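Interim report, section 4.2 (structural modelling).
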Amino acid sequence: MKGEGIGFGKAILFNEHFVVYGIPAIVSAIGKYTVAKASSFEVPELKLNDNRDATPGYKEDKLEQQKTSINNIIKRMNIDFSGEGVEVELGGNLYAASGIGASAASCVAMARALSDYYALDLSDDEINDIAYEGEKGYHGTPSGVDNTASTFGGLIWFEKAETNIIEKISLPNPVEIVMGNTGKIADTTAAVAGVRERKEKNSDKYKKIFNRAENIAYLAKRALQEGDYREVGKLMNENHKLLQQIEVSSKELDFLVSVARNYGAFGAKLTGGGLGGNMIALTPGKELQEEVANAIEKEGFQALKTVIGVSRSGDSQ
Ligand code: PMV
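Predicted structure of the assembly:
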């Protein structure tokens, strides 16, 4: 018996952190994904072979969280190892790093591989639900934005609510982005906790910042639908400023953001939990994408060239 499944990497274009408090976020799957392959294992347990390429230290750092995550997934899927066990191998072309959705992609891929292996025929909604339980192992109380993008693909408007609001945003054309990796492993739980603490202490200041973040989401949605990438870029720059104000950026992120802007990116911002991890630059057209990626690499950082809006069939939408 064998099973296989994939989960997309993701980039948050707007409103990481704000999304935790119900402010809309815009997130996209990227053209890189984690693949999980399940096969039988003689010992009654789930054995993991994590063969993903990763930022040095990433896998070791996340090992304990990964164990909790896998246990959450097994529990949610009611898998019973009283007979034989299962071996899951993680691979694929998504480089495991902070801010790129590596944890969500692995949860989604694993849930799909196990669903396939045990012939459970689970729907995307069910996979998303299981992956959310898995994500709790990494983040404690995740908003659900990462696993949603990782499961459904495409470009998504996401609002955390009693029943989350998940809407597809259609892009007129696929759009190139560059993601720059600071090489620093970041702890999303700590970043989220820090925001909560500062928000409670400075409620007036944070209220203003959060209000503007909400406005930006609506403006960005319209600009994306109209294909007005200059406007999208401007709004990304402003969103980065708000993220700096809530103190989740870092000097490496600010540096890479300024490199990308200096080389012509339409906009650039940190993406994901911040305090390290990745940034994203909007670089419509292969030429601009190449230029910005080269500039980041010349500074000694890793750059990933990909597109936003990738669907499950691999098309951009
Ligand atoms: O650090 P990442 O890539 O897992 O992104 C986390 C996004 C946050 O908004 C900071 C947290 C959340 O649960 O939404």
